[in-house]
Specification:
221 residues, Rossmann fold, 5-stranded parallel β-sheet, 4-stranded mixed β-sheet, 19% strand, globular
């Protein structure tokens, strides 16, 4: 077999694949955001989905980095125009994902990572069932959530109370997800996340180059 033939077989998995949508949800404070951002930083084929929201920016947040901050009127116009892949009303504020950049990323072979609530994860999974992988992150103990939310020093006591109450409702949806990670130790939880991600990338349906590749192997045999 010539070197050229070998190189032809080596190229497909490096250049031709369909991206996936990695949907990560958890009650607030369980660690999904930290896990998500580390994964996005370490894998070049992955981009972090940026949602639009009507909630005010928190200290240190920037337009187009954490969120696209929209007025309620603008957001509702986006809903009416079908510009969102999903949206939800959480604690009195809209959150949603612009459709066009997500679909473009999938078709370009990029993976899109979502830090998202269970409602949004359900909507995306219904619309893109073959592209989605859903992961739910749980804390090792409920007291950890309150401690982490207080440590952020970003929200009032009333907001923290509301977030904890919301979290109790959110964890009832864990059975809708493909995988569950208990974030007892961050490094271990991250290793579990990487294993899930790499395994999902290898599924045949996300690698459309495989039929031609296998046919080439059969022809050489």
């Amino acid at each position: 077999m010539s070197n050229t033939a070998h190189e032809d077989h080596a190229k497909p998995w490096e250049t031709v694949r369909r991206g996936l949508l990695l949907l990560m949800s958890s009650p607030g404070g369980a660690g999904k955001t930290s896990l998500s951002r580390r994964l996005a930083a370490e894998y070049g084929d992955m981009i972090l989905s940026i949602s639009a929201t009507t909630r005010p920016a928190r200290p240190g947040e920037e337009e187009g980095r954490e969120y696209y901050f929209k007025s309620r009127e603008t957001f509702e116009a986006m809903i009416a125009d079908g510009e969102l892949l999903e949206y939800a009303d959480v604690n009195g504020h809209y959150y949603g994902t612009p459709r066009e950049p997500v679909i473009a990323a999938l078709e370009a072979g990029k993976d899109v990572l979502f830090d998202i609530d269970w409602q949004g994860a359900r909507q995306i999974a219904e619309k893109q069932p073959n592209d989605t992988v859903r992961i739910f992150v749980l804390p090792p103990a409920w007291s950890d959530l309150a401690r982490r939310l207080h440590a952020r020093a970003q929200d009032s006591e009333e907001v923290i109370r509301q977030r904890l109450a919301l979290g109790k409702r959110e964890i009832t949806h864990w059975t809708e997800f493909d995988y569950v990670i208990v974030n007892k130790d961050f490094d271990r939880a991250y290793a579990d996340l990487v294993h899930i991600y790499r395994g999902e990338r290898m599924k045949p349906g996300r690698n459309p180059w495989l039929p031609d590749f296998v046919k080439g192997l059969e022809d050489e045999a």
